[in-house]
Amino acid sequence: MADSYFLPEILGEILLKLPAKSLLRFITVCESWHSIITSFPFISAHLAQTPHSDTLFVRFYVSTSHRENYSLFQDSNNQPFYLNFTLELNFQFNCQLGYFRIVGSCNGIMCLADDLFGELQSLILWNPSIQKFIALPMPSIKP
């Protein structure tokens, strides 16, 4: 029913203007929205038109609580060393060693490894802005 009001091309252009978090909610509206939002051309176009973010990912250790904290900060005033606290991140996944190493990141997706002493326990792809993650299968070949 929702798809009868707009042509798919027009709907796609409207959806392109929305943030990723909203798009994740709208996937469930109807099948046509789901197929548009999850299509490779739409994802590529959305990523290409998304402005460069001034959001910083900060990892810091608090010795009194023996805990690593992860936070997002926004550099909204374009002034050196002026950061607005945006969000404290809580992992929704467990790590056996209590520590994650940031292996790398690409387009907002972070690759985390639970390998404190050189033995890989888990490998996770994590999108901190939407708080979703995928645990990757362990490689069958040891390095």
TrEMBL record:
UniProt domain F-box: residue ranges: 7-46
SUPFAM superfamilies associated with the record: F-box domain
Taxonomy of the source species: Eukaryota, Viridiplantae, Streptophyta, Embryophyta, Tracheophyta
TM spans (from-to): none
Species this chain originates from: Solanum pinnatisectum (tansyleaf nightshade)
Record Pfam families: F-box
Protein name in UniProt: F-box domain-containing protein
Domain of life: Eukaryota
InterPro entries, per database record: F-box-like_dom_sf (IPR036047), F-box_dom (IPR001810), SCF_F-box_component (IPR050796)
